[in-house]
TrEMBL record:
Protein topology in the membrane: Multi-pass membrane protein
Protein's organism: OM182 bacterium MED-G24
One Gene Ontology term, aspect cellular component: plasma membrane
Highest taxon of source: Bacteria
InterPro entries in the record: MATE_fam, MdtK-like, Membrane_Transporter-Flippase
Stretch list, region Disordered: 1-26
Alphabetical keyword list: Cell membrane, Membrane, Transmembrane, Transmembrane helix, Transport
Residues spanning the membrane: 53-74, 80-102, 123-146, 166-186, 198-218, 230-249, 289-308, 314-336, 348-366, 386-406, 418-440, 446-465
Name of the protein in question: MATE family efflux transporter
Location, primary (coarse class): membrane
C-alpha cells in the first residue's frame, strides 16, 4: 500500500500534536494556579468562589445534621432532648479541631502568599501527625467523664442514659472528623475551594443514606435508635476521610514522610492554634451555661432550642461561610503585602452579612413555624423553638461581622484579639446579661441577652480589625 503521507510529514505532525497537548496542559495548569492564587484577579470573584464552595460544604453538613434531627424526632422527644445536650461537648471537641486547622491554615496561606511551597508541604505533613495524636488523646480522655459532664449540663434519667450512649460512639470517630476538618482548611488555605466542598458533600450524602438503616433498622440491620445515628455519622466521615488522604498524598502531593523541623512547625501552628483553641473552648462554655439555664425551664424548652438551632443554621451558615472564606484570601494577601485587597474583601463581606442578616430574620419571622414543623410536630416544641427564632436571630448580621473579624485576625497571624473578644463575649458580657435576663424574663430573656452581647462585641471587633490593618500597612 502506498503511504498517504511521507515519513517526515508524519513526524512533523506528531511533533505539532505533542506541542499542542503540552500547551493545553500548561494552559490548564496555569488556569488552576490562577484560580488558587488569591493575590491576583478580582477580589469579589475570589470571595464568591470560595464562599460558594464553603457553602456547599457547610450546607451539606447542616442538611445531614437536620435530616438526622428529623429521624431522631420521629423516634421520640427524649431522644431529641438528648441530642440537644450533646451540643456543648461536641462544640468543645470540635473547637480543638478548628483551632489546629486555623493555626495550620494561617501559616500555609501566608507561606503561599510568600511563595514558600516547601514550608507549605512541611506544615501540612506535621499538622496531620499533631492533630491525629491530639484527637486520639481527647477521645480517650473524654470517654471516662461523659456521665459527669452531662449531669453537670442538667441531663437526668432516661435523657442522661441516651446522651451517654450516643457520645460513646461519636467519640470513636473524633480523630477522623478532626483530620478531615483540618484537611479542608488546609486545602482552602492554598486556594483550592472545590475539592473540600465536593468531598464534604459526599460525606454528608453518605451520612443521610446510612442513617435511616442504622436508626430504624432494615433487614438484618437492627433498629439502634440514637446509637444508630452516631454509628452512621462515624461510618460516613471515615469514608470521606479516606478520600481526603488520597488527595493530599497522591493528587496534590502535599504530604511527605520527613519529620525534619517538626517542632518548629508545631510552634508556628500552635502560635495561632492554641489561642484559637482557647477561643473555641470559651464559646461552648457559654453554650453550656445557656443549656443549663434552659434546662431549668424543662426538657421541652431544651428540645425547642435544639430544633431551632438546627433550623437557624440552614440560613446562618452563609455568614459563617463568608467569614471562613475571607481567611485564606486575607492570609495570602497579607503574605504578599496586598493590603488594599484585604480591605476590599472586608468591605464586601461586611455589607453582605448585614444584608443577609435582615433577610434571615424576615424569613424566620414569616416561615419559622412551618420550618420547625418539618422536624417536630409537637405544638409545645414548635412554640419553644419559634420563641428563639424571633429573638435570637436578630443578631445574625452582627454575628457575621464578628466572624469576619476573628477569622481575619487569625489569618494575619494575630490570635490574641479573637481570644480576648471571645472571653469578653461569653464570660464578661454574655453570662451576666443572660443571668439577669433569665431572672426577669425567663428563657426569652436568655435569648435577648445573647443578642445584646453579639451587637456590642461585633462593633468592637470590626473597629479593632480596621485599626490593625492600618497599622500593618504602615509597617510595610
Amino acid at each position: 500500500m502506498q503511504e498517504r503521507f511521507p515519513a517526515d510529514n508524519r513526524s512533523c505532525m506528531t511533533d505539532q500534536i505533542d506541542k499542542s497537548k503540552t500547551r493545553r496542559v500548561e494552559a490548564t495548569s496555569s488556569s488552576a494556579a490562577a484560580a488558587r492564587d488569591l493575590t491576583q484577579g478580582d477580589v469579589a470573584a475570589h470571595l464568591t468562589r470560595l464562599t460558594g464552595f464553603m457553602m456547599l460544604s457547610m450546607m451539606s453538613f447542616m442538611v445531614a445534621s437536620l435530616v438526622e434531627t428529623l429521624y431522631i424526632g420521629w423516634v421520640g422527644t427524649y431522644e431529641l432532648a438528648a441530642i440537644s445536650f450533646t451540643f456543648p461537648l461536641i462544640f468543645t471537641l470540635q473547637g480543638v479541631s478548628m483551632g489546629l486547622g486555623i493555626g495550620a491554615s494561617s501559616v500555609v496561606a501566608r507561606s503561599v502568599g510568600l511563595g514558600d511551597h516547601a514550608r507549605v508541604r512541611r506544615v501540612v505533613t506535621h499538622v496531620i501527625v499533631l492533630g491525629t495524636t491530639i484527637s486520639i488523646l481527647m477521645a480517650f480522655g473524654t470517654s471516662f467523664f461523659l456521665r459527669d459532664i452531662f449531669s453537670l449540663l442538667g441531663a437526668e434519667g432516661v435523657v442522661l442514659d441516651l446522651v451517654v450512649e450516643y457520645m460513646w460512639i461519636w467519640l470513636i470517630g473524633l480523630p477522623v472528623f478532626t483530620m478531615t476538618f483540618v484537611g479542608t482548611t488546609l486545602m482552602r488555605a492554598t486556594g483550592d475551594a472545590k475539592t473540600p466542598g465536593y468531598l464534604s458533600a459526599l460525606g454528608s450524602i453518605l451520612h443521610m443514606a446510612i442513617a435511616p438503616f442504622c436508626i430504624f433498622g432494615y433487614g438484618l440491620v437492627p433498629a439502634m435508635s440514637l446509637e444508630g445515628a452516631a454509628i452512621s455519622f462515624v461510618v460516613a466521615r471515615q469514608l470521606a476521610f479516606i478520600l481526603f488522604i488520597y488527595c493530599f498524598i497522591f493528587r496534590d502531593r502535599m504530604m511527605g514522610i520527613s519529620m525534619t523541623g517538626f517542632f518548629e512547625s508545631c510552634r508556628d501552628i500552635l502560635h495561632v492554634g492554641l489561642p484559637a483553641v482557647a477561643s473555641n473552648m470559651i464559646m461552648p462554655f457559654g453554650m453550656s451555661v445557656v443549656t443549663r439555664l434552659l434546662a431549668g425551664h424543662g426538657a421541652i424548652v431544651v428540645a425547642g432550642y435544639g430544633v431551632a438551632s438546627r433550623v437557624e443554621s440552614l440560613l446562618v451558615m452563609v455568614i459563617w461561610a463568608v467569614g471562613m472564606s475571607i481567611a485564606p484570601l486575607v492570609g495570602q494577601n497579607w503574605g504578599a503585602s496586598a493590603h488594599d485587597r484585604i480591605r476590599t474583601a472586608m468591605r464586601l463581606g461586611g455589607i453582605f452579612v448585614m444584608v443577609w442578616g435582615v433577610l434571615c430574620y424576615v424569613t424566620f419571622l414569616v416561615l419559622g413555624r412551618e420550618m420547625i414543623g418539618l422536624i417536630n410536630d409537637d405544638p409545645e416544641v414548635i412554640d419553644m423553638a419559634y420563641a428563639y427564632l424571633v429573638i435570637g436571630t436578630l443578631a445574625v448580621g452582627f454575628m457575621g461581622l464578628m466572624n469576619i473579624a476573628t477569622n481575619s485576625f487569625n489569618a494575619l497571624g494575630k490570635p490574641m484579639p479573637p481570644l480576648i473578644l471571645s472571653a469578653l463575649q461569653m464570660i464578661v458580657l454574655n453570662i451576666p446579661i443572660i443571668l439577669i435576663g433569665d431572672h426577669f424574663w425567663g428563657y426569652r430573656g436568655i435569648y435577648a441577652g445573647g443578642v445584646l452581647t453579639s451587637v456590642v462585641l461585633s462593633v468592637v471587633a470590626w473597629i479593632w480589625l480596621k485599626r490593625t490593618l492600618k497599622e500593618g500597612a504602615r509597617q510595610f
